[in-house]
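DATA SHEET
Item: assembly model
Revision: 1
Owner: S.N.
Input lines:
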Amino acid sequence: MAVQQLDVDNVIEARREYNAGLASLDKGKRVWQFPVLLLLVLALFPLVQVMDGYNYVLHLMLYTFMYVAMASSWNILGGYTGYISLGHNVFFCIGGYFSGMILAYFGVSTLITAPLAGLAAAAVGFVIGSVTLKMRGPTFIISSIALLMVARILFDNWHFVGGSNGITLPQLELDAQWMKIPYYYAFLVIAALTVWTSYKIKHSKFGLGLRAISQDEVKAESAGINTRLYKVSAFAISAFFVGMAGAVWGEYLTYIRPNIFLIILVAANLVLMCILGGKGTVAGPIVGAILLIAFNELSVVYLGSSELNILGTGVVMLLALMFFPTGIIGTLAAKKKLPRFLDWD
Amino acid sequence: MSNVIQIVILGLALGGVYALMASGLTLIFGVMRIVNLAHPVLIIAGAFVTFWLFRLYGVDPILAMPVAAIALFCIGVILYKLIFEKEAASAKYSEMTVLLTFAVAMIFDGLLGWLFTNTQRVTTPSYATDAIFIGDIFIPTGQLYAGIASLVVIGLLLLFLQYTRFGYAIRATTQNRAAAQLMGVNVGLVSLITFGIGIGLAGAAGSLVSFIFSFFPAKHWEWIAILMSLVVLGGMGKLGGVIAGSLILSVIAAFVGAYIGSTWSTMTFFLALFVILLVRPQGLFGDKIEEA
């Protein structure tokens, strides 16, 4: 049977050229000035502390950076890949304890060991992910909650790390005026790194594979994507940054204890920030983190109880899910009203 | 030997209550494919209804069961009308509903915590601290009555599902939603009522929980994984399976608690959940779970 031989090379060449054209067109339109400018402003901001009295602002900002890092990190798994984890603060805890224990026993600051803590969290994430990512959809979500419960019991009863009372960590020897600056920069760097990674992943073949998995895993598999490896890698990467954030957070608080890391509200915050801002977008988790932290702070100031805070978080989440399931960025983008400075994708 | 019998009996009594706690969850999953993360917090809401009835009017917790069940039935119907009805068409339905129920769980957690504070509470009817002795074996009457009451409620539920026309419609919808609809079942109404019944069962379970455990609003997070392990073990959506699953797991947990340490007895449920999800995701008694 005579089958006409297609000139495959030519076709591939033409397609590559076309894609390159598209990519360069895309690149020209992309805003990079705004994020860079923002980063610059944020990097120079601590100068106001020369006048002293901005500790609360600095605290809020570094807290926001931490959540930006964690939410963007969660977004790699939950947004791009579509695997919603309600137990991601397990890695927050692992990072915190890993670096915290090194600090307590050897006196090495977590600012130095944070990347190692990230790696430890990623390694644990890789192992756990290769087991739990066999499940899909709601089953995976259930297993992630169970993971959180298991971790809570383990850390509460592990006497070497102080059990449920935790351990205290030594403080940096600095004036109260400059106390927050090192952590400010640490969280800023972690957040910037996470957002950059999230952007890079979104625009890579890896990210394309992840998004294919979130659309239809079986089809992605049959299109030749190693779904297993992709998913587990995404899980490990998203554990990495959460672990790093946890490491610095422990030293910043000067104590580590299971009930600061392993409470469901932290996991709920991560999920909610991504949903609020826009799951699967680069800028979404940032917008979500800023909004939610502002909301939390206001509700603590004006309502004053943590129960009302939980209630408020739940109401916001419910309303966001029901009326803006694609989040602020997603909804605006769909209406083509997204301001250019927020279009980071 | 009597030690072993003792542990088995305690495990079974607790298992009966767990079965009631999880039965509403499995019923809702069966008909609507909703994994209801708000179930445990609604159980606590039922416990609060019972607690206040007992505290203010001296109503016996077991007699308060119907009241709690009806109150929670109404909450369930309202929740379904407000939230879940319009989600039926959403693209990622099952994930979406998990997140929605998670939000509902937070709302009730915060609401109950705000209204009643997060202190430990327990109702104290006279039988809650009593025990019956048969030879060496002692049976706490509270757990015994709770176990019996929960089996009665589950029995009534099974009779309802088996012998009434509406129960027949519920079972048909569980088996195949589209086919049931084609056969003239009003699937929307079935979903609404089933959701109500499921939440009502949570209320009834709450009455029993109020005197065998101490409870506070934030406690429900640890129950989510426990109840899920029971539902998954029984095969999601299988009522018979969840009863068997609860009894089996509770007995195992009782043995773990007795021989290894009480902190690890809850761990049994979580580890069982992982093992089952990995080895046999359809559960011991279930068919293959459909991908949603």
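QC remark: The mean pLDDT of chain B is 86.
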